[in-house]
Amino acid sequence: MSENSEYQFQTQVGVCTITPEQISFAQSQAVSGARVPKLHAVLGGLTFGFGVLTLLWGDLMLALLLIVCGLVFPWLSLMKRQAPIPPPIPRQAIRKVETHPPHPPLIRGYFAVWYEENKMMRQLRLILPGGASEYDSAVQALRAAGLLES
Q1: How many CA atoms are closer than 13 Å to the CA of 63, on its beta-carbon side?
Q2: What is the pTM assigned to this prediction?
Q3: pLDDT band at 32, cuts 50/70/90?
Q4: With b meaning 16 or more CB within 10 Å and e meaning fewer, what string describes 4-18?
Q5: Is the C or the N end of the chain the one with fewer CB within 10 Å?
Q6: Segment 107-113 mean pLDDT
Q7: Hey, where are the domains in the chain?
């Protein structure tokens, strides 16, 4: 890695930037807004609506369950999107990086970064936003930065 090299790739909550000194994280503009993903909002709205319809049909227990699920599902996905950004990790503290490729449609690709902090081993998972193309570009960035073997 040359002295002025900087590599970036998208993660689920923002952008990961690799410099010769550290790995840092920033929330991207697309993620930083307080909007729930459209699919989660639609599913929550449909579940809530079906709960109200079930309430009108007279099934109180199922209706309450559906209404609560319709309200909680978008709220939980919003809370997940507002997860705190991890602090920068110095390059000399990184011990290894494990790759875990995506298995669509169930599992997203991610990287496990093992680093030492206060004489303890810690793990940070970098979950990627999409499928194979995002995974491949992130692997190329990590290899170019010297964090992965070829």
Answers
A1: 9
A2: 0.64
A3: very low
A4: eeebebbbbbbbbbb
A5: C
A6: 89
A7: 7-30+86-144, 38-81
Q: Which of 69, 76, 77, 75 is nearest to 48 (CA)?
A: 69
Q: What is the amino acid identity at position 36?
A: V
Confidence of residue 34 (pLDDT cuts 50, 70, 90): very low
- Token readout for 83 is 């997860």
Give 25's contacts (C-beta < 8 A, 6+ positions apart).
11, 13, 14, 15, 16, 17, 85, 86, 88
CA 57 remoteness from chain centre: 39
* The two structure tokens encoding residue 84: 């705190």
Residue 78 CB neighbours (<10 A): 15
pLDDT in tens, 71-95: 888 877 776 666 677 889 999 999 9
Tokens 């997860």, located at residue: 83
> What is the dotted CATH code of the domain comprising 7-30+86-144?
2.30.29
